[in-house]
Amino acid sequence: MKNTHYTIANCAAGTHGGDCTFIASNPFPTRHLLATFDGVTGKVKPCGATNLPIGTATDEVETDEPVNVHFLGGNGTVLMVAAGAINQGSLLAPAAGGKVQAGTDAFLRIGIAIGAAQAAGDRIEVLPYAPAVTSAA
Length: 137
What we know:
Number of strands: 10
């Protein structure tokens, strides 16, 4: 039996600045993956391409461990994991496995690429914003 003790600083009811601690219902195998609610109060999982992301997981954690999530639309830029090559200035959308991809004609926009990614797995600096379903202009 695993004896684990966690101290969680920002999990109380109320409002939160730009981050909040949740419990991971699935592993986050690397930092900076998009997170989404999993339907269980207080739990999040890596975001899929068709899920609504709430933020980026700043930790690498296993199932049932606490994970800090930096909310989209929060202050400043965040790192995210690219699903493939992304040009600087691209509008970004969720991709499978909690990663991000350059958007297509109609997609869920979550931010703008401040840096560029050469290949899948690269970390990319992103100016995030609250998710919005839209069509490319």
